[in-house]
């Protein structure tokens, strides 16, 4: 090779390496928050020439975020990982697996769909060591094993999914300045939360802002309240039986959870009174905390709700949150309600198995933790990798959870979880009794059989 060609080849090699490095969000070894040893371990696996296809629900910014994580696996192993996202994921994955064109890995926003596909033989069980790994490395590990375990086509329970990227719902939002001015302290138990609610009323103020409005989905925020109350008044096993209707919707245990929600819906407890909540859009309801004077002091909602706070709100300063607490007297631990994405193998290969193992590494969690919109119950990830104190605090709530359960309405049949349950909660807020509401929902469920 002549000197000119050699110089050109070297320049091309340097350019290619630089381009590859530029694809990595954080230069390996340079940020001490990350477990770079777990990244270096990936380099022992040579997957050059291998292609892995991944299909999920993420588009736009979330697509860029997951690709920023995948880039580390590609750089270390030489594999080509092709992620595709769709806002019609649920419909498309069912079509693809039945047509024999399944991706190697599918990312399910709801485990119910995965359970249906597993029962038809379209999912590959995870290897036998996964169950032990999840139990040892995830907070409330048995919860995650339970959520990813379904019956296969022969009716045998197997672990089919691994949860990666979790959303947190068991949160109460408040304005620290309002609490400080009034002399209120953040409650640590449900007993203290109820006492604080009553104290705010005694002081002539309104404790809660609640909004159930959501267009055609009006009522869903109340289902989250009831689910949280089921976890705080009944065992996780009863929660699971309720979700599958083994425990009927009009069982006294479920009725009691609805009434627990109703305790917070008293007219003088809620801005505008209990009958106003169905007409109040859930996106507008937290704004009452920021008005002057404040229309309410607290708002129970998931981790996404700051998107609807007034523009310029600084989390940790202008607004903060605390864990929606459990009853100290009921000894049910610290349950957490939420959602998450479950990763399953829909077309097996050696490279696919190695990619799934990558999700067990700290670096696979920390890269996304350091950006936005990602929470994990993985105890091996460094909580200091979170991009801000808000995410870190939410992550610690997950790590402290003794039980995690998926949003129950999302696991119920659509006519219940996205129909009768929503409608029933609107009727309940309008004055119907918990017994009437529960009977009507159960009647709808019975009609499905």
Low-confidence stretches: 1-22
Structural class: alpha/beta
Helix amount, in percent? Answer: 40-55%
Q: Assign an overall shape.
A: globular
Number of strands: 11
Mean pLDDT: 94
SSE topology string: HHEHEHEHHHEEEEHHHHHEEEHHHEHHH
Beta-strand share of residues:
5-15%
Report the sheet with the most strands, covering strand number, pairing sense and barrel closure.
6 strands, mixed
- What is the radius of gyration computed over CA atoms, rounded to a whole number of angstroms? 24 Å
End-to-end gap: 76 Å
Counted by DSSP, the helix tally is: 18
Set out the fold topology.
Blueprint: H1 3-22, H2 36-42, E1 51-56, H3 60-77, E2 80-85, H4 89-98, E3 105-108, H5 111-119, H6 129-137, H7 141-147, E4 149-151, E5 157-159, E6 162-168, E7 171-174, H8 176-182, H9 190-202, H10 220-233, H11 236-244, H12 252-263, E8 298-300, E9 320-323, E10 335-345, H13 350-358, H14 362-369, H15 389-400, E11 403-406, H16 408-411, H17 414-429, H18 434-448
Parallel strand pairs: 1-2, 1-3, 10-11
Antiparallel strand pairs: 3-10, 4-5, 6-10, 7-8, 7-9
Explain what this protein looks like in three dimensions.
- Strands 1, 2, 3, 6, 10 and 11 form a six-stranded mixed β-sheet that branches. The protein has a three-stranded antiparallel β-sheet with strand order 8-7-9. A two-stranded antiparallel ribbon has the order 4-5.
- 41% of the residues are buried.
- It is 44% helix and 12% strand.
- α10 (220-233) crosses α12 (252-263).
- α3 (60-77) links the parallel β1 (51-56) and β2 (80-85).
- The protein has 18 helices and eleven strands.
